Amino acid sequence: MRIALFLGFLAAAIFYAAWRGGGPERVMAAIAAAMVGLDQLLHAFVPPNFLSLDSGHLAIDLFGAAATIILALFAHRFWPMCVAVLHIAPLLAHISRTIDVNLHPAAYLTMQVATSWPVPAILIFATWRHRRRLARGVSEPSWQISSPSSSPTMARR
Question: Which is nearest to 117 in space by CA: 32, 42, 47?
């Protein structure tokens, strides 16, 4: 039941961000959708196993961490940094499993998934804030400008 609840919450966040979000919100929606898709694909071929290092989820978590770190580096928003940290935390679960093979499977599972729960709420809030800024007429760039010669209008959404 909790998985269905989480997936429903995440689906709503992805839909809202894709529909009403700015560039960073839409990229995060795509990252989240890709991670869920990869997870479903993994489980179609490999049953969940938390007794040893879960290399399939490690690969998905590495993708999520790398993608959100890149998003945090380029987005002109604060929230991607928080989401990047939430995607880095499950990597600690995999490191812990590698170091301590006696780690209880329930602890390993919890360490992998617990930090996923705030992500939909952050994405919904970020999208709402983006819409609120637009409604107030605040024009804020979606992306960081990397060179001084770049035009500020190039970075706007």
Answer: 32
Give the tens place of pLDDT for each residue, 68-114: 999 999 999 999 999 999 999 999 999 988 898 788 889 888 998 99
pLDDT at 35 over 70: yes
Residue 34 near residue 66, CB atoms below 8 Å: no
Q: Which helix (H) or strand (E) holds 21?
A: none
Task: Give the C-alpha distances (Å, rounded to integers) separating 5 from 9, 12, 143, 154, 155.
Answer: 6, 11, 32, 39, 36
**Integer distance in angstroms from the first to the last C-alpha of the chain?**
38
Task: Give the Å distances, CA to CA, from 120 to 11, 35, 91.
Answer: 8, 13, 19
In the chain, pLDDT over 70 holds for what percent of residues? 92
